[in-house]
Amino acid sequence: MVKHIVMWTLNDEAKRDCEKITADLQKRFKSLLGVVDGLKAIEIGHNYNGGKYDLVLLCEFDSREAQEKYQTHPAHVAIKEIVHSLTCGRECADYKI
């Protein structure tokens, strides 16, 4: 199993609607379950603890190959474009368990 964690900093405009944006993105990311082969779990939340990052995404995949296919899957790419329009910083970590 592979875990994929992404953290984003929202741009100033998006920070004003953080809760609404988080809820919208949660629906969009959840819609990938059953669409992207090998994606077992996915969730996104607002970091209420302060710090540099506002949003955190956690995904679980069957394998690295499934994660690689997710990265280029058209449904994921469409969401990725939305996220890029709302954010100004990103960090990512991936690990196998």
Automatic annotation (TrEMBL):
Q: Provide the Stress-response A/B barrel domain boundaries.
A: 2-95
The record, for Pfam families, names: Dabb
Q: Mind telling me which SUPFAM superfamilies this protein's record contains?
A: Dimeric alpha+beta barrel
At the top level, the lineage of the source is: Bacteria
User: Known SMART domains for this protein?
Assistant: Dabb
Q: Which PANTHER family match?
A: BLL2683 PROTEIN, STRESS-RESPONSE A_B BARREL DOMAIN-CONTAINING PROTEIN
Protein name per its UniProtKB record: Dabb family protein
Query: Lineage from the top down?
Result: Bacteria, Bacillati, Bacillota, Clostridia, Eubacteriales
